[in-house]
From TrEMBL:
Pfam family membership, one: LRV
Basic and acidic residues composition-biased segments: 60-78
UniProt-annotated stretches for the region Disordered: 1-78
Protein's name in the database: AbrB family transcriptional regulator
InterPro entries: ARM-like, ARM-type_fold, LRR_variant
Gene3D superfamilies, A to Z: Leucine-rich Repeat Variant
Record lineage: Bacteria, Bacillati, Actinomycetota, Actinomycetes, Bifidobacteriales
SUPFAM superfamilies, sorted: ARM repeat (SSF48371)
Organism name: Bifidobacterium ramosum
Compositionally biased residues, Low complexity: 10-51
Amino acid sequence: MSEANEPTTNEAEPSQSSQSEQSEQSEQSGQSGQSGQSNQSAQSGQSAPQEFETLTSTYERLRHSTDTAELSEFARRPLPDKSDQAAFSRATALLEAVAGNPHTPVDDRIFLAETMPFPNVLVKLSVDADERVRKAVAANGDDKNWLVGRLTKDPVPEVRDTALRNKRTSWKMRLEGAQNPDVDAEILDFLSRFGVESEPDAPAILTSMVRRAVALNPNTGAETLARLAQDPDPVVVKAVRSRS
């Protein structure tokens, strides 16, 4: 009986060994499959192309965007360093689209009008429907004289007066401002000091033309006229006397 049972025992051992080997092979196969999938995923992640939006596409998207949060974030985003010329040029070009979009929050448009030195951005903001934005452009010390000159003719007195006070405003624009019958006594008083108390180094003949125009403007106040009657240029004094 003992001898008869031994073959049975010997036959059972290979069966258990075979199951173990199959299990190990199955685990190895599973691990290999998982590893292969992981490698494929990693390779796929590495080789997947990142989306890049062209300048034109981004410009048009921002120009027509109604996403105020995105527009605000872009308006306040720090500019790239100028050493990275491509990134810097791209950012300033896109700011033009943001500045010209009426969905950009007004506070952000005012921020751009006050802080940006770029003509392409300021030109957009100089025709903004909100007079507060235009006033901020008019006060910007980085304005080109032709741009601030446009704003000296703005229909809103506060914008116009701010532009006339900007040091970037040419003498010609100030002369036209002094001749404008719609300007008030306060800005005329400011212009009456041109070349005497303010900007004394400006060309004398040009500044005296501005003061003479102030002297002849019907809106000039009595105190301003009294001071101009003592002007160092006799042409200005003569203009004051011609009013009486």
